[in-house]
Structures are given as structure tokens and as C-alpha cells.
User: What shape does this take?
Amino acid sequence: MRRGAEILNFALLFVFLWFSFARADESEAAQDARLSDLIKRIKPSIVAVGTYYFNDVPKAAYLGTGFVIDNGKRLVTNYHVVLPVIEKKKTAYLRVFHTNFPDIGIKAGIVAVDEFHDLAILEHESDPLPSLTLGDSSSVREGYGVIFTGYPIGLVLGLNPTTHSGIVSGIAPLIKPSPTARIIDGDLIRHLNKPYDIFQIDASALPGNSGSPVILRNSGQVVGVINMVFVKDKKEHVLSVPTGITYAIPSDFIKALKKSIP
Assistant: This one.
């Protein structure tokens, strides 16, 4: 009798474990499917930001990543991405590259910049593209799962954006000014007295990811913009010696910048 009870208990335990593993496998498969669907939905909203000028060699030059918001004609990137064309007074050559656009890209204009938070909003001159939704970055907590999509090594792979996945591993104030801040003026000094929180992400971004949207895996909403990669050695070693530490500007600063547009 006792022997029979032991066999029954063992059989029940085996069945319980089998169903537990089966449910775990189904859960992982469902998560993979949701992530794949999310990436598929995001990619049409990702653009490459660069320049095109027929006298340049090569004619097209890549500057960074951007993503589409609002009505499908506006897009967000980093201020430091467009800074070279601003400094060289070549904004007329600014282009947005996308699979829906011609190879030479589509002209884009700069409609708003926030140097301190390293943000810029552009507007392209073609038909609207699918847009992403800006989420509430103030509700993000450490441990939240995120992805970011962009062109980490430029257009080496063509207009095929790449996605990286990780978690928000830290939220801490950025005390020093943005590396693009060249002039310490009165406005900047006032900003320095009010340091703002940035997100640290435990996934490896590369310089080409500048301007990539940081998206919550559970909602698909944009909560940040990649703007810095921690380099532990010389910057030319960023490809061969990645640190896995990436920083992003919260999306609430994009919302604030949008309000400055007439």
C-alpha cells in the first residue's frame, strides 16, 4: 500500500513538472512572438539622418538615427547628430533616408533644438511615415524591459535598422552639461542648477545609435532617446571593446520641446 502511494505521488509530481515546463515554454514562445511583432511595427518608423550633396565624396553621408512622431512628417534625433550641418551652415543638405524614399533621401528642416538635453526635431518634405507614440518617461522604473532600434554602424547594412534589448538598469541625475554644450551661458548655468535624470540601459549601443528610440517592451511606447555610449578605452575602440552601458534622454523632454514649436 505504501509502495503504491509513493508511486502515485511520484507520478503526480512528474505530471505537475511536465505541465509547468510546458507552460513555461509556451510563455517564452508567446513573449518572443510579441517582441517580434513589436519590432516589426517599429521598424517602418525608423529613419537614417544624414546629408546629400552631389559634390561630396561619397555624395551621401550618415549622421545618426531618427524616429517619426506625431503626424508622420516630424522626427526626433539628437542635437549632436545635426550639429555638424548647423556649424558648417549646410542645413540645406540635410536629408532623411528611408526605404519609402529615393536613394538620395528627402530634404528635412530643423524645426526645434534643445542643446542642453541633446534633442532635435526635424520635419521632412515627403509623404507621412508611420509614427511612434511618446510615453510617460516619468513612470519608468529600474528593471523595466526596453528595446532600441537604429543604425549602430551606419548604413553598412543598408536601410535595415537593428534592434537591441535590455533593461533600465539605472536612473540617475546627469549633473554635467551635455558634451555638445560649447558655450556656458546664463540659460545653461540655470540648467546646471537643476540636474535631470537619465536612463542607463544594460545593452550595447554604438555611435550610430544616436537618436534611436528607447521603447518599453510591454507598451510599445517611446520613453527615451539614445544619446551616449560609455567608452572605457579610446573612442575608436568602441566597436571592438563595447561596454554594454548606454544612456538615454527621457521622452518627456521631447514633449517639452514640441511645445516650443509654433
Helices lie at 2-42, 79-87, 186-192, 252-258. The radius of gyration is 22 Å. The CA atoms of residues 77 and 185 lie 24 Å apart.
